[in-house]
Structure formats: C-alpha cells, structure tokens
Amino acid sequence: MIDLKGKVAIVTGGSRGIGAEIARLLGSLGAKVAVNYNRSAEQAEALVAEIKENGSDALAFQADVSSLPAAEALVAAAKEKWGTVDILVTSAGMNWDGTIWKMTAEQWQKVIDVDLTGTFNYIRSCAPIFREQKWGRIITITSINGLRGKFGQTNYSAAKGGVIALTKAAAKDLGKYQVTSNSVAPGFILTEMGEAMPDEFKQIAINEGVMKKAGLPIDVANLVGFLASDAGGHITGEVIKVDGGQYI
Ligand SMILES: NC(=O)c1ccc[n+]([C@@H]2O[C@H](COP(=O)([O-])OP(=O)(O)OC[C@H]3O[C@@H](n4cnc5c(N)ncnc54)[C@H](OP(=O)(O)O)[C@@H]3O)[C@@H](O)[C@H]2O)c1
C-alpha cells in the first residue's frame, strides 16, 4: 500500500488533464499538494477543495512555468506553508503543431519555453531543498514523441526529448543525495490536449497501440504515485512509457 502521508508535493499543470489526476491521486495517498495552474484558476481551486474534503491539504498557485522567478515563488510558498517540499511532478505542457517547413520561430520558442524550460525551472527550484534534506522525488512528464519524434511536432518532440535528457542528468547530479529523477512517457491519453487532435490522428494513435485503446489520466497518475513513494526509491534515471504498447 502506497502511503504519502506527511509528504509535500508540487504538481505543475495541475489544473487539468493528467496533472489534475496526479494531484488528486497524490492527495488521496496523503500528500499535501501545491496545484500549479496558469489560466484555469477555477479548475485548480475546485481540485484544491476536493483534496481538502478528502482529508489532505492543498493550495492553488498561479504561475506560468516558463518563469524561473515564479517557480521559485511557488516552491517558497509550499515550503512556507508545509515546511518542505518532497515530491515534484512537472506535468505542465502544451503543443503548437506545424510541419518543419512552416514552423515559426515563435512557435518553436514557446513550446521550448513551456515544456522544456518550464521543467528545468521547477527542478532547479526544488533541487536545493531535496539536496539538503537528502530525499526527493522528481517525476517529469515527457511523451513517447520525445523518444521517437512525431510528424508536425518538431518543437514538441525536441522539447520532450530535452525533458528526458534533463531528467537523466538531474538523476546524476542528485543521486548521492537520495533524490530520484524519472520521466513518465505517456502515449495517447484522453485529455483536452489528446482530444484536440483531429479524429484521423486519434484513430492512428489508437491503432498504433497493441491494446487498441486510448489511455486515461489515471493510468499515468498510478505510475507517478508509485515513483513518488518509498516503493520506487531505487528507480532513477528511467523513462517509463504508459502507452498501451503504442511505441513498440
Ligand atoms: N494527452 C496526451 O495524449 C499526452 C501524451 C503524452 C504526453 N502528454 C503530456 O502530459 C502533460 C499533460 O498534458 P494533458 O494532456 O493533461 O494536457 P492538457 O489537458 O492540455 O492540460 C495542460 C495543463 O498544462 C498547464 N499549462 C499549460 N501551459 C502552462 C504554462 N505556461 N504554465 C503553467 N501551466 C501550464 C495547463 O494549465 P492551465 O489550464 O491552468 O493554463 C493544464 O493544467 C503535458 O506535458 C503533455 O505534453 C500528454
């Protein structure tokens, strides 16, 4: 039985989709959860209320993940409220697709800023705390497309590939302080991001998977819960796919 009682977690992009399900699950396992959001204040506040009703504690914090000062402020707020931070999950992400011959510099930079730099900002802000307390869990959300590259997603694929390398390098920097750093690589998951794909591409993604079905946010959250716990304490530097066999 996974128990996260007494642990403090930060989930970026916790207002919707995969991040919201992760925040919900960590809360139900006993963790206190800082739910980061950018635009979806109402969803973040509703989730915080739900986590509190279910017996744990939570706070909502607005921050664009591409800002390092905002990341530092969020981490400081969680530490101020609960004394420390133990678990970092970086789920905030976006895509802005276009084939390479049409992609603008703005399209490229925005996705790199949010998906890759946004992940760095939170690992950077939590690392001193994890290092000092000699315990920490970093769980980044990448994508199978960060491993294989996807048509029309050079920016997103590059950012998610960068997240994998960043996660592995952080595992090396922080390993001797008993901090694990792993990346979870979802395949097609039913969220607003997943649903936004054209029907034809959704069907291709489903057909690629050997299980012939889309994943759900809880499929991703379950693995995150395990990696965040003591049970996952000897796993680090890994990229674990949650994709119903879409990649193989
Ligand atoms: N769904 C899939 O099929 C799939 C597959 C592989 C990987 N992923 C990855 O899984 C993660 C979650 O995706 P999802 O499907 O849950 O997406 P989603 O439903 O579109 O939700 C995206 C989340 O990211 C947050 N976000 C976006 N830009 C942000 C920013 N600049 N600062 C802070 N938060 C920001 C959003 O917050 P606000 O609404 O508050 O702005 C929202 O909570 C992403 O990293 C995504 O790349 C998803």
Would you give an account of this structure?
Helix content is 48%, strand content 15%. It is α/β, with parallel strands linked by helices and 248 residues long. It has one domain: Rossmann fold (3-Layer(aba) Sandwich). The chain has a seven-stranded parallel sheet with strand order 3-2-1-4-5-6-7, sandwiched between helices. The structure holds NADP nicotinamide-adenine-dinucleotide phosphate. NADP nicotinamide-adenine-dinucleotide phosphate binds next to α1, β2 and α7.
SSE layout:
Elements lengths: L7 E5 L4 H12 L3 E6 L3 H13 L4 E5 L5 H15 L4 E4 L14 H29 L2 E6 L3 H4 L5 H21 L4 E8 L5 H4 L3 H10 L8 H12 L10 E4 L6
Parallel strand pairs: 1-2, 1-4, 2-3, 4-5, 5-6, 6-7
Helix pairs in contact: 1-2, 1-9, 3-4, 4-6
Which characteristics define this entry?
248 residues, alpha/beta, Rossmann fold, seven-stranded parallel beta sheet, 7 strands, 15% strand, globular, binds NADP nicotinamide-adenine-dinucleotide phosphate
Question: Strand fraction band?
Answer: 15-25%
- Distance between the first and last residues' Cα: 30 Å
Residue runs with pLDDT of under 50 for 5 or more positions: none
Q: Level of helix content?
A: 40-55%
CATH superfamily: NAD(P)-binding Rossmann-like Domain
The hetero molecules present are: NADP nicotinamide-adenine-dinucleotide phosphate
| Domain module tally | 1
What about the largest sheet? 7 strands, parallel
What is the CATH class designation?
Alpha Beta
Structural classification? alpha/beta
State the CATH architecture.
3-Layer(aba) Sandwich
Number of helical runs?
Answer: 9
